[in-house]
């Protein structure tokens, strides 16, 4: 901020320079919902996404609290419309999670995780090896 002070002509411009930023709750809510949807969508195939989503939510909560309580203006009072809209989208997120999860588990083009009965030095032996859900559930 010190490099722009010399260009300010009036006291009003200087006051605007030091005025705190707005806290954009709607924008932050959109980022939150997008990250939760992304984490839940791919968590069936990559279980680490649950942990990464949790870490993102914790760090976003901490950064939002810091920005809201120390650096930003007090936001206007919001009603229930945004939380109602969020709750309305949760069944859609569940269907996306189930659909992608069923596709990831049931896709037969993936290689199996178990290679104990196959000679891994031969590429032709690996070609017919496909994903077997029974082996993973044992």
């Amino acid at each position: 901020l010190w490099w722009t002070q010399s260009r300010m002509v009036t006291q009003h411009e200087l006051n605007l320079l030091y005025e705190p930023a707005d806290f954009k709750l709607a924008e932050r809510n959109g980022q939150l919902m997008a990250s939760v949807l992304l984490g839940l969508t791919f968590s069936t195939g990559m279980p680490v996404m649950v942990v990464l989503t949790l870490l993102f939510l914790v760090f976003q909560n901490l950064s939002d609290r810091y920005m809201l309580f120390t650096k930003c203006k007090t936001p206007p009072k919001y009603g229930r419309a945004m939380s109602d809209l969020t709750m309305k989208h949760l069944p859609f997120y569940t269907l996306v999670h189930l659909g992608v999860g069923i596709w990831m588990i049931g896709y037969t083009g993936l290689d199996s995780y178990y290679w104990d009965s196959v000679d891994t030095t031969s590429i032709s032996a690996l070609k017919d090896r496909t994903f077997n859900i029974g082996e993973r559930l044992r």
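The chain has a mean pLDDT of 80. The two ends are 62 Å apart (CA to CA).
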